[in-house]
From TrEMBL:
Key words, A-Z: Cell membrane, Membrane, Transmembrane, Transmembrane helix
Entries under Pfam families matching the protein: Peptidase_A24
Subcellular location as annotated: Cell membrane
Membrane-crossing segments per the record: 51-72, 99-117, 152-169
Membrane topology field: Multi-pass membrane protein
Protein name stated in the entry: Prepilin peptidase
Source species of the chain: Falsiroseomonas tokyonensis
All copies of domain Prepilin type IV endopeptidase peptidase, residue ranges: 13-111
Top-rank taxon, per record: Bacteria
Amino acid sequence: MAILHSALLYGVPILLIAAALRDVATRTIPDGFSIALAAAGCGLRATEGPLAVVLSLGSAALLFLLLVPLHARGMLGGADLKLGAAVAVGLPPFGTMDFLLLTALAGGVLGCVYLALARLPSPQPFAVGIPASLPGRVLAVERRRIRRRGPLPYAVAIACGGTLVRLIPAGG
């Protein structure tokens, strides 16, 4: 049982990082990430008893309902909405509030990074025969998205908030 608990506990940040990378690359997050996170969260909370699962599902449902108006106004993507609610499934109700705060702070940092990227001078064309590095290619693509006023990859902020809430002890 302890091995399963550890696997679920460490699997959550791995899933979040994978979802964030996918969001950066394609601005999409497959539903499988949210489903896997919700299942892992239920498994983690089940180790504390059925009441813990019910409370977590309730707080995740409430979070989902509170975020729907942001999605309806185009301020939050549908996949981000599902991903955030899925992370909340694995947290106690007060942990969900910590998750929201940490995600909002990470989203602010993400927004500042994107504002800074928008102000950088345009990168020079790649030299012939010299392969561009992966970070350089990602930066070039992100700069094009910024110029076109594309959305932020908010799964990055959700991944930061979801991972940090696991690393920082409750009340600490």
